[in-house]
Amino acid sequence: MNMHSEGVQVDGEPGTRRRRSWLWYLGVGLVVVALLGLAGVAGLGWYWWSLVRNYTGTAPVELPAASDSELDRTALWIRWQTFYESVRQGRPVPPFELTADELNLLITGNPDLRDHLRVEITNGALYGRFSFPLGREGQRGLTGRFLNGRARIQIQFSDGWLSLNVEEMEANGRPIPRWILRRLSRENLARDLDRNSEAVEFLHQLEAVEIVGDRLVLRPLPPSP
Predict the structure, then answer these.
(1) If both were cysteines, with which of 4, 22, 131, 194 could 8 make a disulfide (CB 3.0 to 4.6 Å apart)?
(2) pLDDT tens, 52-111?
(3) Rounded to whole angstroms, how far apart are CA atoms 71 and 76?
(4) Are strands 161-171 and 146-158 parallel, antiparallel or unpaired?
(5) Could you state, in order of their start, the residue ranges of all structural domains in the chain?
(6) Sequence-separated contacts (24+) of 42-49 with Cβ below 8 Å
(7) Contact 155, 162 (CB under 8 A)
(8) Bridge partners for 215 per DSSP
(9) Which helix (H) or strand (E) holds 207?
């Protein structure tokens, strides 16, 4: 969870230079793993063009509106900072909870994501709704195309290690082929957090990262006696 004063940050955090958040990795990760799946058939001629035609669009889709209140974002940052410092210092602190609206508040504070990603929490599951331009890296046939869709993300947290995996995904209103979904599901969208030593240290002080009801909950380990 990329949100603290040195190496783990809330997007839009006041007074610091902008760094990548875990939400940035989630959003970009969705596109990267989707392109990995598509790249596997780039040499299959008609099938490649069939995938591009069926699963990408010629225009972006409008995503649900989300708050962009800097005041609310700052209040969320202050609440996070209190939680983060308490966990790092081993002080008792209640779990930190984020609603989908608060997650989207962080997204709108990130120029890389604000127009391309929204988060939903429905029936105890986390979803990402996305609309990303393709073809920026020169992939064949993708210039002027957009990946528009929705994915269900599974959160797994064990012994301080966080994994975010695509469990189901639709693009252009269609479920993606199963073989592509199998490939996507093997990719950990949060893998870059493992390279951030401060994020790793913090995550190892948590007991759980999970969806409970309509919230993302970070639960700290009980303080040592």
Answers:
(1) 4
(2) 888 899 999 999 999 999 999 999 999 999 999 999 999 999 999 999 999 999 889 888
(3) 9
(4) antiparallel
(5) 22-220
(6) 42/139, 42/140, 48/140, 48/141, 49/141
(7) yes
(8) 99, 212
(9) strand 206-212
